[in-house]
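lol ok so funny story. i was supposed to be doing the assay writeup but got distracted and ended up predicting the structure for this chain instead. priorities right. anyway since i did it might as well share w the group, maybe its usefull for someone
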Amino acid sequence: MLSLDINKYSQRLVAHIQPLPPNVEVGLILCVTTLIVTIPTVVVYRLYFHPLAEVPGRKIHAITGFLTQWKSHVTGTWLREAAQLHRQYGPIVRIGPNHIAVDGSIGWPQVYGHQPGKAEFSKYPNFIFPGDGMSLIGAQKDDHRREPIDIVTWANLTTVDIIGDLTFSESFGGLKSGGYHPWVQNFFDGIRGEGMMRLMDRYLLLKPFILAIGYRHIRESIESAEMSMEKAKARVALGEQPFEGRRDFMTYMLRRGKDGVTAMSETELLVNSSIVIGAGSETTATALSGAFFYIGTHPQVYSYLVDEIRGAFTDASDIALKSTAQVQYLHACIEETLSIYPPAAETPPRVCPGATIGGKYIPKGTVVTVYQWATFRNPSNFADPNSFRPERWLPKTHALYDEKYAGDNRAVFKPFSYGARDCIGKNLAYAELRVILSHILFKFDFELKPGQSDWHEKQTSLLVWDKDPLNITLKLRQDEVSIS
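and the output, tada:
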């Protein structure tokens, strides 16, 4: 065991200090004294005298928010910890000196909803990125070879091509090429860099350290933003209608009012168009990948779903937006996927105007977050919250309805946020999920490649889930039907 001679250590320290000029020595002593006095004072204040001192939670989170931010923006492990904290401390938990987490059972309407006559919870700035205030059917080659394909990649290629066409009137060509467009690849590569930059904004003294460990990711994030701007500028240059009779999302962003001014400024157009592409593709692709994983790991669910889809349609041409909405077990499987694997991994926080939440007054300026993951995994809200049980979403008239889930608090199920903050692409996402799953399960049988049972469990979350490949095998169904 190593021993430490305090006297020798002190002498060496004094020897280093003594040669310093008197003014530097005095300054150093003042700085050290200030730190010695300030740090304990801040700690005591935050633990015992801060307005949130009575909110339950771990003491380390009351002292500093760094651990929460690090796990949220860098390691991606915070969501699972937040769920555990709610189980341990209840519906309101302190997760930072001025930051609380609120279970959706009391938080959705209060924090994200609109209440006449009451002040709104304002948006928390720079959550997604600094300055954000403005803001698998075609894989024939793999199918016929019957070799494993990565459904995560094909889900992303599909949804990115769809949202690219809807936003810019131009597909990214992923399904045709079988690979990511450089802009799309940069978007995924830059997500971790966005988290690093958010962390630097909050902890300026740690900027050199964060830059040292995250330079590559930050560079990728900047490159992604630059490519997004170029893509959006090219579309803006085409005007409201890129082609005769063709409208896309940018058409409405560019539309001018009676005063001749566009609904959005050029900067807002450029920022929001890239957000539409990212949010409109990644979350749907995540839900689609998650559906394949959970359906594939539950043989009985797979059997029920395939039977219901193939019983609902006699020909592939019958599969459409409206017709798939009537397939109840399909809808239940999608809802359960969104519950157990919410694609938008972390909900943007809000700033409290000074309000009572769940019977507890929360002072003005407090940052408030409702975590979907923690809310949906809370046994106070759902029976068997960690199990994949589509039957919980079925109507009582369905043959597979289970009374066990009659007491589930469905009101807290908000996978697309809440109220006026609800995702504007929700209906598009549901439509894509229904149609893509219906087409694939109508035409093909599939199974997961062995050794992937922990695919979801080992994922981390950085605004979106960091997913490994999910390899499945597809083969044409053998019975005599029209699947063209």
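The chain has two domains: 22-51, 140-476. The first strand starts at residue 92 and ends at 96.
back to the writeup now i swear
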